[in-house]
TrEMBL record:
Pfam families noted in UniProt: Bac_luciferase
Protein family per UniProt: To bacterial alkanal monooxygenase alpha and beta chains.
PANTHER family reported in the protein's UniProt record: LUCIFERASE-LIKE MONOOXYGENASE
Enzyme class: oxidoreductase
Enzyme Commission number(s) of this protein: 1.-.-.-
Keyword Oxidoreductase: yes
Source species of the chain: Flavobacterium chuncheonense
Source taxon at top rank: Bacteria
Occurrences of domain Luciferase-like (ranges): 17-294
Lineage: Bacteria, Pseudomonadati, Bacteroidota, Flavobacteriia, Flavobacteriales
Protein name: LLM class flavin-dependent oxidoreductase
GO molecular function: oxidoreductase activity
Keywords: Oxidoreductase
InterPro entries from the UniProt entry: Bact_Lucif_Oxidored, CmoO-like, Luciferase-like_dom, Luciferase-like_sf
């Protein structure tokens, strides 16, 4: 058995308000907490009407306050959008409020389009190039050794906030290995380079930098229902959401349809299926077999799932069924 965790994109369905979406996240997190999940992470995205996790650190605090033991964190904070000092202060505050329960996953991408990235931070593209340096700055702000510096993070200094490097390409693998940090791969939407990225990470891991051992996490999509046909029907909401992304027609998550026939052309279907290749859709028995094979093949240390399902009751069922698989 390896640890299993959950990624919440705070997906806004066309029948829900933002407030209801956040209430659903609380219910989802509480079930994950009760079902043995190790972590509950939010991803920072912007300018997407179907994703409500833009104020990531605010949601982390809200969920941590509504749960008991599960670790809550970011999957991730897109560091080029922010000052490292501000992130140290935010997560130092969170870790002071909820000791030993806060994770800080860091990404290099903007989590949005280029125009919005510039609106978030006028120096975004320069910051993206300085991502390794800004990770080091963030580590320094958290360090007790920073006590003699003229710029200090309060709260934050001396607070234990585990850092993860997130990625969807081999670039992030090089950085995570050089820093000796845990590495989480976004295989739920960009699986193409995962195998090579994990190879690079293990081959080049520098534990002397951090004193840690290598640790890999892969995030995948999971939809479990009583029958394969029902799981595939539920997955049409998920596929239509990705179809909207490649068409640049981003909208609220829509209810499932009978099938995807007539919804996409062959090229669009191939594109969506490539992006979502690491998806496990079926019954508890079929998903169990496929997940076992996936974990064994990639030799990951932890698995994280996201369940992009329209109806909350069906989503909760997937979350509970997956926990039973992992237990």
């Amino acid at each position: 058995m390896i640890p299993y965790s959950f990624l919440d994109l705070a997906l806004v369905c066309d029948n829900n308000t933002i407030t209801q979406t956040f209430e659903n996240s609380v219910k989802t997190a509480q079930l994950a907490d009760q079902s043995g999940y190790s972590r509950y992470w939010f991803a920072e995205h912007h300018n997407m009407k179907s994703v409500a996790s833009s104020a990531t650190s605010v949601l982390i605090g809200h969920i941590a306050g509504q749960t008991e033991t599960i670790r809550v964190g970011s999957g991730g904070i897109m560091l080029p959008n922010h000052s490292p000092l501000v992130i140290a202060e935010h997560f130092g505050t969170l870790a002071s409020l909820y000791p030993n329960r806060i994770d800080l996953g860091l990404g290099r991408a903007p989590g949005t389009d280029q125009l919005t990235a510039q609106a978030l931070h006028p120096n975004f593209f320069e910051n993206a190039q300085q991502f390794p340096l800004n990770v080091a700055r963030l580590q320094q702000y958290f360090s007790s050794d920073n006590s003699t510096s003229k710029v200090r993070a309060f709260p934050g200094e001396g607070v234990d906030v585990p850092l993860w490097i997130l990625g969807s390409s081999t670039d992030s693998a090089h950085l995570a290995s050089s820093l000796g940090l845990p590495y989480a791969f976004a295989s739920h939407f960009a699986p193409a380079q995962m195998e090579r990225a994990f190879e690079i990470y293990h081959q080049n891991f520098n534990g002397d930098t951090s004193g840690l051992k290598p640790k890999t996490l892969a995030c995948v999509n999971v939809i479990i229902a009583d029958t394969v046909a029902e799981a595939e029907r539920l997955a049409t909401s998920f596929y239509r959401m990705y179809l909207g992304i490649i068409r640049n027609e981003r909208n609220y998550m829509e209810p499932p349809v009978a099938s995807m026939e007539g919804q996409w052309n062959e090229m669009e279907e191939a594109h969506v299926k490539q992006m979502t290749a690491c998806s496990f859709i079926g019954t508890q028995a079929t998903v169990k077999q496929e997940i076992e094979e996936f974990i064994h093949y990639f030799k990951i240390d932890e698995i994280m799932i996201t369940s992009p399902v329209y109806e909350l009751s069906a989503k909760l069922k997937s979350i509970e069924a997956f926990a039973e698989i992992m237990q």
